[in-house]
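Researcher: Next sequence.
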Amino acid sequence: MKTVRVLDKDFTLFIESDKIQETITSLAEKMNNDLKDKNPLFLVVLNGAFMFAADLFKNLTIPCEITFVKLSSYIGTQTTSVVRELIGLDEVLTDRTVVIVEDIIDTGITMGVTTEKLRKLNAKDVRIATLLFKPDAFRMNYEINYIGLSIPNDFIVGYGLDYDGFGRNLPHIYKILDKDGES
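Model: Next structure:
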């Protein structure tokens, strides 16, 4: 499908599933090399990163563990400066290498708050992996260790990303069209 409708908004095809899978395979290869012998804990940010995390985990060959947290900083199509923790972390992180797995980083506020919390819990090393990164929206000053694709500052849905809870099930990623049908 070249265009889809999610609730009251129209979206056009932006990144096809084959490109998503190629990107994830490449990220996993880099992680397999970088994190060998570190026994990392992958901390997946729900709900958006669940599809990315599942496909990433299938490509990891190193000993590792996975756990989940649920954070939110969006209302509709807009990001807020408030990060709400809806499901918290219950793992012991002392002296662990932790890789935060996120679907998308735009302003960077959510990851900034999350990395600070993990450091206070005595994680030895905190790294960030994101499928998508919006450099034009990024307002923070920290390193993102693993970036799949850099994209423009458009609102997107699909492959785990949502608009008010809908559109996560789409196998491709779509970007929003304006009221005139322009992307």
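Model: The first strand starts at residue 3 and ends at 6. The radius of gyration is 16 Å.
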